[in-house]
Design goal:
The protein is α/β, with parallel strands linked by helices. Helix content is 39%, strand content 15%. It has two domains: 243 residues, Type I PLP-dependent aspartate aminotransferase-like (Major domain) (Aspartate Aminotransferase, domain 2, 3-Layer(aba) Sandwich); 128 residues, Aspartate Aminotransferase, domain 1. It has a seven-stranded mixed β-sheet with strand order 2-8-7-6-5-3-4, with helices on both faces. The protein has a five-stranded mixed β-sheet with strand order 1-11-12-10-9. The longest helix is centred in the last third of the chain and has 23 residues. The two termini are 33 Å apart.
Length: 395
């Protein structure tokens, strides 16, 4: 195949050439002052990205690892938490916590609606909940919850619980404001909006969370965030050897995000790209009611990925058709039903990280070509609708 293949899945996302080039070097001296200074600089930028002045612990892990890092630093066996699930990753987080001996009270909001603050307030009426946990954007369903409203519900209930937020699928794409929203613990990873390879996880935690976790019975030497957040020696950041080439990648990506594009422009770009995808899907759906966005309310949709129903088996056939034509789309993760056990009616279109208008329009054009080639009924005017959305406010 000639030309570049576009892997439009919700992570790992597209790696910019500059990030790849930054990693293309020999292994450095991990005792040299330059790499120590770079790590401190990265920590400062990561706090800016998350909208916080809180503590930060960096780990060699994926997003799942950050679930365990958070839990071991905050909880003891038998502690109770309230977990708000809006898709596969909420349930996955609950599974990790239960495996550690944490008692999880789970509210399942289904697969196409955000967490309801009123339900949170009602669930906090009784005592004993140490933390409320929510996934900002569930990568599987693309549902986005209103974090500020959840914090307000917790305050209205008079709860002393901590608020923990999984931002793996939203950080660097959706607006994230840890301090303004009253979040105590925030989780992120390197492979989505941060445009770096998988392998680094991040846990930001407030002073309130640090104090609350001093008695955590689950804490282990590797996951302990104490020295990672305030290292006396360089190796304390990582509890061992530094992930050197990940650091070079992250340094370049954060330069692109914060020092060149800027957060306001970055959030605006993701808003436009997401709106273009939504407009195209809605146009296709005018000719086929089976084609629809998973989330009806635009305010409850993530700006990094869109879950789309095409009807079984059309989504799976469409994914197979577009792949040899230079495009890979995400599987319908966690969307299986009795009628469609393999979720062959669902797929996900990512628009996160190092993506621009021509990449998004190109992906939509290939999808439309696939719909035509496969004989899937669909409405017309999708590309025109996408182009109009891209030309909206903030262009």
């Amino acid at each position: 195949m000639t030309g570049r293949h576009y892997t439009a899945i919700p992570g790992p996302s597209v790696l910019p050439d500059r990030v790849l080039a930054a990693m293309h070097r020999a292994a450095p001296d991990i005792y040299a002052p330059e790499i120590e200074a770079m790590a401190a600089d990265l920590a400062a930028d990561l706090k800016t990205l998350a909208g916080t002045k809180a503590h930060l612990a960096m780990y060699l892990c994926n997003g799942h690892g950050t679930w365990e890092a958070m839990a071991t630093n905050l909880f003891s066996r038998g502690d109770r938490v309230l977990l708000l699930a809006c898709g596969t990753f909420g349930h996955g987080w609950a599974g990790v916590l239960r495996g550690l001996g944490v008692e999880v009270q789970l509210i399942d909001f289904g697969r196409n609606t955000p967490a309801d603050p009123a339900a949170v307030r009602a669930a906090l009426a009784g005592p004993g909940i140490r933390a409320v946990l929510v996934t900002h954007v569930d990568t599987a369903t693309s549902v986005r919850s209103d974090v500020a409203a959840i914090r307000a519900a917790m305050d209205a209930a008079g709860s002393e619980a901590l608020l923990a937020l999984d931002c793996v699928a939203s950080l660097g794409c959706d607006e994230v404001r840890m301090d303004d929203w009253g979040v105590d613990v925030l989780l992120g990873a390197s492979q989505k909006g941060l445009m770096a390879p998988p392998g680094m996880g991040f846990v930001w935690f407030s002073e309130r969370a640090r104090v609350a976790g001093l008695s955590a019975g689950l804490r282990t030497p590797y996951w302990d965030w104490t020295l990672r957040a305030n290292p006396a020696e360089f190796w304390h950041y990582w509890f061992g050897t530094a992930p050197t080439h990940h650091l070079y990648a992250l340094r370049e990506s954060l330069t692109m995000i914060l020092r060149e594009e800027g957060l306001t422009a970055l959030w605006s770009r993701h808003e436009r790209l997401a709106s273009a995808v939504w407009a195209a899907v809605q146009a296709w759906g005018q000719g086929n009611p089976a084609i629809r966005l998973n989330v009806a309310d635009p305010a409850a949709r993530g700006r990094s990925v869109t879950s789309v129903h095409f009807g079984a088996p059309h989504a799976a056939a469409l994914r197979d058709w577009v792949t040899p034509h230079g495009l890979t789309l995400g599987v319908g993760l966690g969307m299986g039903t009795e009628q469609d056990p393999k979720a062959s009616g669902w797929l996900r279109i990512a628009h996160m990280g190092h993506v621009n208008a021509h990449m998004t329009l190109g992906a939509l054009a290939v999808i439309e070509a696939g719909l035509q080639a496969l004989g899937v009924p669909h409405g017309k005017g999708a590309l025109e609708a996408a182009a109009a959305a891209l030309s909206g406010p903030g262009k």
